[in-house]
């Protein structure tokens, strides 16, 4: 059996107005997996050495449907062994399930001689997302595999576009110790929206894509405004409006909910501002009696990759 170590980064999905169609890559936080492959044999095993509690049943692990979809497309017998060495906490809102699925399919593809392009790996990894949330979406697995910022133009047929990341682009993320169910977070969303809101949202998505294409952080910041999802989901996060006001006053380009939450992210044009923002985020939840984990770093162009053991 051949072995390889793969790191896949954490991600932030939606980016405000880009609900289910946009995501970006975080530097400095992610999953580390050891992947083993033996051709000519069959089977899948998953071992957890991360110290994070994960499902013990093989069929309940997000890696399983991703690997099975890939092997079905490959069409030859392969035995795969996955060992999870380091893990983003599940339910963090920064792509925990996506990082594992992305690392797994990337590693198997490397060991098999890269039979699939990166876009196909995204489609395989999406099956892990479907296991948890019921929807095979790519706004986390896309950036986890490809790096940078991604736009999913459509799913039928699948069409994903990688956008460039400005050099002066940094993130601040807080993960409060509260639980937000993805299914509940979807259930609160309206099924229909007024045309005026749709027009506002379209304009912001277009501005966001243009901002990344032009590497214009100011345009990115003023476009990352969400009138469809944030008004309904912010109720899950204590003191959200007050926190947003404080973060924007510090010079953040934008602040919004990471995926379905509970994590909250902000973007900044320099690392010093990002560090000040995470301090305010941490203090905000501490004042409410809620613990949290905070992260600050550069928005990364690097997706899943081979690392030294």
Structure, briefly:
This protein has 309 residues and is an alpha+beta fold.
What is the topology?
Blueprint: E1 2-13, E2 22-39, E3 43-48, H1 63-74, E4 78-86, H2 96-111, H3 118-133, H4 141-146, E5 149-155, E6 158-163, E7 170-176, H5 182-187, H6 195-214, H7 217-223, H8 230-233, H9 240-249, E8 254-257, E9 264-268, H10 271-287, E10 292-298, E11 305-307
Parallel strand pairs: 3-4
Antiparallel strand pairs: 1-2, 1-11, 2-4, 2-5, 5-6, 7-9, 7-10, 8-9
Helix pairs in contact: 1-2, 1-3, 2-3, 6-7
Describe the protein in words.
- The protein is α+β, with helices and mostly antiparallel strands and 309 residues long.
- Helices cover 37% and strands 27% of the residues.
- The protein is built from ten helices and eleven strands.
- Strand 1 (2-13) and strand 2 (22-39) form a beta hairpin.
- The longest helix has 20 residues, at 195-214.
- 47% of the residues are buried.
List keywords for this structure.
309 residues; alpha+beta; 37% helix
What is the overall number of helices?
A: 10
Structural class: alpha+beta
> What is the number of beta strands?
11
The major beta sheet can be summarized as:
7 strands, mixed
User: In what range is the share of β-strand residues?
Assistant: 25-35%
**Head-to-tail CA distance between termini:** 16 Å
- CA gyration radius, whole angstroms: 19 Å
